[in-house]
Amino acid sequence: MDKPHDVFGRDEEWADLAGFARPALPGMRIAVVYGRRRQGKSYLLRRLADAAGGLYHLATEQAESISLRRFAESLRSWARLPAGSLAFGGWDQALDVAAQMIAAHPGSPPLVLDEFPYLVQETPGLPSIIQSLYDRLGPGGTGGGAPLRLILCGSPISVMAGLLSGTKALRGRGALELRIRPFGYRDARSYWGIENPAAAFVHNAMIGGTPGYRDLVPDPDVPEDAHRVGAWLIRNVLRPSMPLFGEASRVVHEDPRIRDVATYSSVLAVVAAGESSPTKIGALLSRPATSLAHQLGMLASAGFIERRHDLLRDRRPVVTVADQLVRLHQLVIEPYLADLEAGRAPQVWGEVQHTVDSKILGPHLEALAADWLARYAYDEAGLAVGPVGHTVVACREHKAAHDIDVLALARGCRPRTPGVPVMVIGEAKYRDRQPGMAELRRLEHVREVLTASGHDASSAVLAVFSARGFTDDLAAEAARSRGRILLAGLEELYGVTRPR
Hints:
- By secondary structure, the chain is an alpha/beta fold.
- The chain has helices spanning about 10-20, 40-50, 65-80, 90-105, 115-120, 125-135, 155-160, 185-190, 195-205, 230-235, 245-255, 260-270, 280-285, 295-300, 325-335, 335-340, 345-350, 355-375, 375-380, 435-450, 470-480, 490-495; strands at about 30-35, 55-60, 110-115, 150-155, 175-180, 305-310, 320, 385-395, 400-410, 420-430, 460-465, 485-490.
- It contains 22 helices and twelve strands.
């Protein structure tokens, strides 16, 4: 099935779903599709059902009897049966009849149950009912082997991801587990129609790549001048009447397992402020780090925080905020809530510029640099790299530790392996001045320290990432380096020009 023209991006996701929906193999197959709200899951699955002639059913938060009645009506309408011709006494009967009708339909199209957690909430045994149906109709079953493709979709990540895990009823019965994530930074730029990479960078650092957010702003036309993106945020986000003003709080607490609102909000606030160690996070909350393991795990599984492991050293992971809108909420909206509610958004935005530069734009540039190395460096700079991340290396000469913003190992190598080859040592700087020879000398020193520590870093490429361009002497040095020095600004990160 060709992807419909009105589906933006999602090429890999569409290929996975289209391949799953193709009835090439006999028997029942189950797919679990999940992701936070407003990622376009339902839109994608509706288009899949339309393209394949399948049945898409959107569940609602209602009693079991009403849910069964609505499903019967969806199935009747899809099969073009007379009104009132279908009625079910339970989900075992409903799914059994649906399986028979779909098997008899030309091409055995897929059945999509969207917002599946709503159904499970009223019928906790529904996964077991599906398990029983699978054991009868799936591979090796006794149901005749007719193709049946069942797609279960939902937003609460902890619920949906758990369907196929542990001792759950559907464990080992999933043929596809697909998580729909926000658009990457390049797709987000195209989706919002932003030409200027500098404006796209600032916008993405504040809003992220969730496609549904474009429908929640009254003015979707983002200025091409990066300096005017702040005014756009003031109009579209930093006003209490705007849907995105409280969106971050809603999406965090939509997961049913996130119940202690105060604790989760406090953890996010501390991490957004720059604390990355579980021990320090616990100390600021007057709690031992071990007592926050559950909260950190839940926030990580839901995609709100990221636990980044050191590529070279066996140490505790660094915790950062992964969701841009949540970060904006914790750093700008929550601390200045009273002022924003009083209509003083322009004043607030002026006051928080240092916070925005150091705790939003700076970390975001590091994230884009790492993403570029992992996704695009091979095709655009000829760098064949493996794992990408960060590290901290001790320096006896300076009696301190050097933080390496971006590090890339050789392809096929395992992190934290003695003597692992280092391919790229990088520094990402978002600042008013352009990086120059001082940044290059620091990277050269770090390469020497890594080599002296037993790591194979002597041939590593030195990379400088900048949002402000580079000094002339650094650009000249990179031109003479024959590929040993790499310079990448925002135009290079966004693929407008090739890295130098």
